[in-house]
Amino acid sequence: MAIVQCVPNFSEGRDLEKIEKIVNPLRGKEGVKLLNYEADKNYNRLVVTVIGEPQKVKEAVFESIGIATKLIDLNNHKGQHSRFGATDVCPFIPIKDMDMNDAIKLAKELGEEVANKYKIPVFLYEQAASKPGRENLATVRKGEYEGLEEKLKDTNWSPDFGEAKKHSTAGAIAIGARRPLIAYNINLDTENIEIASKIAKTIRHSSGGYRYIKAGPVEVPERKITQVTMNLTDYTKTSMYRAFEAVKMEAKRYGVNVTGSEVVGLCPMEALVDVASYYLGLEDFSLDKVLETSLME
Amino acid sequence: MAIVQCVPNFSEGRDLEKIEKIVNPLRGKEGVKLLNYEADKNYNRLVVTVIGEPQKVKEAVFESIGIATKLIDLNNHKGQHSRFGATDVCPFIPIKDMDMNDAIKLAKELGEEVANKYKIPVFLYEQAASKPGRENLATVRKGEYEGLEEKLKDTNWSPDFGEAKKHSTAGAIAIGARRPLIAYNINLDTENIEIASKIAKTIRHSSGGYRYIKAGPVEVPERKITQVTMNLTDYTKTSMYRAFEAVKMEAKRYGVNVTGSEVVGLCPMEALVDVASYYLGLEDFSLDKVLETSLME
């Protein structure tokens, strides 16, 4: 059975009553499971993680978007996180028995339905992007809600679904498909943030490192350590063990040790199977040989 | 939702028609999944792996035992594998949201039902054993079908359920509860079986090694290597990485390298999580942080 993950972000991080109403359609439905939702007051943003059968997840998220469209007015919205829509972004992530193309298809279906029913202009982004310049969410969202009217006058920014006209309260929405991220931090036994920073630079894509690593330095003063904090944006191409061993290797240069690591949030089983396979030199091992995989079919 | 695995072994490895009839009750039932069945002609034995909701698995296996009782006559049974029953052994293995006590309870329920309905004497073994001397299956089965009548005269060997009287065609049955086994082989870049044998001895319980490792040497002439072949009988106490590193450490003594390893059959996710956690030094990591775990609840 195919399983998709969906992580809609809504522009409401303060009003708990509204937040509950937005999340409500994702509860108690067969084939849909609300994994987590976190509201951030400073960001004034709600991040929801839901998982389940693709069509059922899509339908439930479609309902939530409808409620967010009614409850959120971006004309009165202030927060530290950039946003251009009441439902700001909505990525689909293929988890099981489906591939990226299936997730892209789902994003397009949802996009069309959202444009038709809620009259919100929809931009497809990341793997679902219709043009190269639309892959990067930051580019798509540039100008934010306040600049949206102007942006939509540019024919380069005509939406993928819906008219080139911002919704008067809900703005626009970016719907897309992407791989699961792994948020992964590696601990260094130094308080020197410069060292963490230098190591982060060597491993991240933006400064010459691995293609699917985003990385930066973080201080953890209460533990008297620093961390290299990472997003592994495609763990099938840049594995956790590779990030770990690369940081270890670079740390040696500074006489610093890697003392451990941590996963923030959830981590796909496949990524851990890959780690175990690497260190044990496992032959012919794959997810199929994991007992639990057979429980999920 | 609780998930149990059950691995009944039947004393029929040759007659495909009978095999299909025995396996049939394990197919197409809600909450029960037939993972695998393998018949061995030399052993004249059928090993079935089924998984699912505890009560439903128990009921389905109960049906299979009934069919095996009708179809198999141990008076005419010959094979290389020792056996004392038509359904020879039937272990329950707790997989998810249940513990060993739940598996023991299930074993006892099945034992009582089998004794009542099919009039077969039942011995509880391994974790479900009622006395210390009955933990070891080999001890319980000693004397095999041919010696069963004599064995049952000994009050030390009165069955846990049913009368002290062998079933005239189906003998007896051992029902138990145990941890999942991991069948794990480690490759050595030597053809010298003596080296594999010496290493196996250092790591296995029976000759002074780890408590939950059974190990021996195997030749793999087609690859010009040998293997240390193992059963990890409790991977929560003796992890795969520990077996792997121990073999690597011992191999050094002989100038031999560990070139890889393999899992035969299925491997529980928890065992792989433990391996990944060890090598990456993961903090606060557990099955709960595996995305797929949330799919199974």
Automatic annotation (TrEMBL), chains A, B:
- Name the InterPro entries for this protein: Formiminotransferase_C, Formiminotransferase_C_sf, Formiminotransferase_cat, Formiminotransferase_N, Formiminotransferase_N_sf, FormiminoTrfase_cat_dom_sf, FTCD
Q: Which domain of life is it from?
A: Bacteria
Q: Give EC number(s), comma-separated.
A: 2.1.2.5
What enzyme class is recorded for this protein? Answer: transferase
Q: Which organism is it from?
A: Romboutsia maritimum
For the biological process aspect of GO, one term held by this record is: L-histidine catabolic process to glutamate and formate
Q: Which PANTHER family match?
A: FORMIMINOTRANSFERASE-CYCLODEAMINASE (PTHR12234:SF8)
Q: What is its main location?
A: cytoplasm
- Pathway assignment: Amino-acid degradation; L-histidine degradation into L-glutamate; L-glutamate from N-formimidoyl-L-glutamate (transferase route): step 1/1
**What is this protein's name?**
glutamate formimidoyltransferase
